[in-house]
Amino acid sequence: MTSERVTHITKKSENISKWYTDVILQAELADYAPIKGCMVIRPYGYALWESIQTFLDKLIKQRGVKNAYFPLFIPESYLKKEKEHVQGFAPQVAMVTEAGGEKLDEKLVVRPTSETIMYNMYKLWTHSWRGLPVLMNQWCNIVRWEKRTYLFMRTSEFLWQEGHCAHATHEESLAMVRWAMDAYKKTYQELMAIYGIVGTKSVAERFAGGDKTITYEIMTPDGKALQGCTSHDLGQNFSKAFNWTVLDKKGEKLYPWQNSWGFSTRSIGALILAHGDDRGLMFPPAIAPVQIVIVPIFKSETKNNVRTYAREVAKYISKFRVEYDEREGETAGFKFNKWELKGVPIRVEIGQKEMEQKTATIVQRDTGEKQTIALSELTKTIGAILHNMQKTLLAKHKQFTELHTHTVDSYDEFKKIMKTERGFIRAFWCENPECERAIKQETKATTRCLPLNAIKEKGVCVHCGNPAIHRWLFAQAY
Amino acid sequence: MTSERVTHITKKSENISKWYTDVILQAELADYAPIKGCMVIRPYGYALWESIQTFLDKLIKQRGVKNAYFPLFIPESYLKKEKEHVQGFAPQVAMVTEAGGEKLDEKLVVRPTSETIMYNMYKLWTHSWRGLPVLMNQWCNIVRWEKRTYLFMRTSEFLWQEGHCAHATHEESLAMVRWAMDAYKKTYQELMAIYGIVGTKSVAERFAGGDKTITYEIMTPDGKALQGCTSHDLGQNFSKAFNWTVLDKKGEKLYPWQNSWGFSTRSIGALILAHGDDRGLMFPPAIAPVQIVIVPIFKSETKNNVRTYAREVAKYISKFRVEYDEREGETAGFKFNKWELKGVPIRVEIGQKEMEQKTATIVQRDTGEKQTIALSELTKTIGAILHNMQKTLLAKHKQFTELHTHTVDSYDEFKKIMKTERGFIRAFWCENPECERAIKQETKATTRCLPLNAIKEKGVCVHCGNPAIHRWLFAQAY
């Protein structure tokens, strides 16, 4: 099944949010569902999620974390056990109040995150230090109610993985928080070719119920910041809320130290934004559902021979993810546009000349570069192009991010940048939530994070002038 | 993380349903959740589901079916579009009535199956024969409300895949219905070593809203029948209910022919029942999360050397799924019992003798057979044992099924068998739903299916004596 028609898409350079929606719908990545805030992930979009799952799940398993599955429904009373947690999530939950034809005694929350249901079970299962660490993850759907859908970015239901671990010491738990962010960074950079800044969230921006949140902040083409994923140090907050203790080696009671970390389908939104252009999507080869499309070009008298050769070529390079487009009723030019829109890294054109010379003409999606290669060299050449394209796309996104990151010491300049070109701003902040709120109100920019590699300096807050020791990263949230 | 304590399990030969629950809880496959009818799938149980997903997803993709993801929530009005469909599922649905702090205008059904939400989208996407066939599948969670949990077998929420395809002709659709059942049969037999009878459901037992249901009926050790999975010919019922037409090659309107097919975590219940014994679980090697456990046996003075050698052995056979159990505070005997309970196909014992002779002692979970093998031969020998064990377990289950399948022509005999030893009964049935109901009421046995390989014969209904042309398969449902 392929699209029945490719129509016009808005230029990315003209209106990025319109382009974003156009390209998702036209490339058949996703569509709106007939439920408020919900979307359907179509096969071409879901294949991206499958690539992410394969890549990340392997890293998770290598770390000794095991997959499990906890219920979709959480008793309302559980969500309420951790005070900040319920305050953070209550406004967004969907509630099941009837089931099996009866009104329920207690409302059930459709999970907005699974801390409370999981930790309740951890408590039942683990009573001694021998049972620690608990290292679990689940791949599942999550519901946080939204009034309006913004495809992939903001939807009432989304897919993610959520890792939830419990440890005997805070140190061990913190190591896990960092490990998870390293795995996410690897996924973003090596699979998705997306650069980002890793850092710690401010108190106002951190996870509801946690002590510390680490984030991966991604710059979008319009100079905004997209929170790519997060990893949370939960301290002992939840073990205390659930009154979960285990006996340590000395036989004394210990509240386990917990962490949680999640990576969601929102990342696909970042992927789309980071690499596309006016002609459509541009997927990095490592994650591209189709790495190479083969388009035969023929007149009616050469049709059979050209097609036979094109199929041979397809077999020849079958170690890559290849799609051979033999669809009738579409011109070659139409197909070129279609697959460019769909972001396929390499197009292979097979015509009479290629057939006669035993060659293939390849065109790169990123540069438009075109070359004709002997069949015997094809696998090697394509392999090298894909490898380089992957590296180049990451390098470009890194360069773009750095080019639009400003080190600013004057609040006037801060305001001016946020009004015009936007981007990331590195500025001293006193860490007072009042200043943070004021800056947000006046510039729409929020603290994105304190980068992990930030050095301690002597400075003054860009807003209030009080002493500050770190340059935080500011940007408008996507 | 492993269990903190292994306690007593009921003997399978004494009380199979008590054994079933004991073994699931003790082996840490799953646990009860604090929500009516819900369960938690623990890592050791979830690994089984991951094996099934890997095996079946590959078959699904080979057939050209692509994965997608549709919303968890279905507007109540959608479910109502197909009359029989809503009657079948309405009593079991869970309803979201509040979300984002507000009462919803229309109640949302938590999907009990996704026909209605998916076909609504198919209609929006596909308007011509060029868009057919639609070949889609999703792996997701499903909710059908249950008052009481029976772990894996009957739970308010379960996991499954649901394939949903649409075709230009009934023939093509029927081919897909059969293909799906072939893929399921392969999964049950080659991965799970579970024999079953493939056949067509009676009108009363088929899918609500479909024209025909094919099933895989599995015999449990107590002679009952477990419906392993189903594949449905939906005819044009849903395309008509949704008024979905596409233009065919002649430009005329065509209602697409649809089918759906599902395989769920219920299959894990069948797996547990089919192979275990009084000592616990017994997993076929192909699906076993751990294929080999290595247990070191030492005195304090040999501890270090034996453990070093055991770790070497583990590396040596790392092409298998190996667990090396170095856990402190448990005797070797305790570990033997623990891993037998957990159904690991092969135990490797490493003691001083093995260390000195560069050998390993291996014990089979199914036969208890014990042999000492030179390290150089170990991989080959283990490979052969696992291969044979897989085949033997399937053969045994097939033999058991055949041994407890009775060809019966007298209703007295029918009743007697169902009162005593149970099993499957092959008996003529007139295909009148009245007789079916009466038989169920009097014997608790239902029609399980008309086996695909049933031959047309001249007979009389075992209940009413009217003419009948086929022997149907009867059994008590698990």
TrEMBL record, chains A, B:
SMART domains: ProRS-C_1 (SM00946). The keyword Oxidoreductase does not apply. Its EC number is 6.1.1.15. It is found in: Cytoplasm. Residues 42-284 form the Aminoacyl-transfer RNA synthetases class-II family profile domain. Keywords: Aminoacyl-tRNA synthetase, ATP-binding, Cytoplasm, Ligase, Nucleotide-binding, Protein biosynthesis. GO terms for molecular function: ATP binding; proline-tRNA ligase activity. PROSITE patterns: AA_TRNA_LIGASE_II (PS50862). NCBIfam families: proS_fam_I (TIGR00408). Homodimer. Consists of three domains: the N-terminal catalytic domain, the anticodon-binding domain and the C-terminal extension. This is Proline--tRNA ligase. It comes from Candidatus Brennerbacteria bacterium CG_4_8_14_3_um_filter_43_14. The lineage of its organism: Bacteria, Candidatus Brenneribacteriota. The gene is proS.
